[in-house]
# Entry
Amino acid sequence: MAKIIVIYYSRSGNTEKMAQAIGEGIKKEKVEADVKDVKDVDLDGLPGYDAIIMGSPTYYGSMAAEIKKLLDTSVKFHGKLEGKIGAAFSSSANIAGGNETTVLDILNAMLIHGMIIQGDCQGDHYGPVAIGPPDSRSRNECVRLGMRTARLVKKIAGE
Ligand SMILES: Cc1cc2nc3c(=O)[nH]c(=O)nc-3n(C[C@H](O)[C@H](O)[C@H](O)COP(=O)(O)O)c2cc1C
# Structure
C-alpha cells in the first residue's frame, strides 16, 4: 500500500498544524500518512515512502536549520529518492516574509534528489503557506495538498 511521510519542524506549533492538515488530506484519499516531527524521523526509513512532504517555519527567508540538516544528511540516499514525489509548505510571520522562498528552497533540494514536484494551477502554486497559524484558507490548501499528493501517488503506482 502506498504511504506518504509528512515531516515538519515547528517551534511554536504553526507549521505542525499545517502538517496535521496535510495528513488529513492524505487519509481522505485512503493513503497511509505518517506525520512526524523532524526529530522523530527514522532517516533510514525514508526510501520506503512513495512521497515525502516537508514543512518548515520561515527563518530568514529559508528553512530552519533542523530541516536543512535532514536534507544534508539525506545525501546518504542520493539516487534512492529518484522518482518519488516531493512537496513543501511553510509558515512565516509576515506576508512577503519569505514563505514562498522557503518552500522553493526545500523543493530545490528535492529536485536534486530527482524527485517529482507537482505545481498547483489554483491555490498556493508552489506549496501551502500560512501567516502564523493556518487560517481556513491556508488549512484548506494543506488538505488539498495532501489529497492531490495521495492521488498522484496512486496514479503513478497504477492503483
Ligand atoms: C529565527 C527566526 C527567524 C524568522 N525569520 C522570519 C522571516 O524571515 N520572515 C517571516 O515572515 N517570519 C520569520 N520568523 C517567524 C516564523 O516564521 C513564524 O513565527 C512561524 O509562524 C513560526 O512557525 P512555527 O510555529 O511552526 O515555529 C522567524 C522566526 C524565527 C524564530
Summary: Residues 136-157 form the longest helix (22 residues).
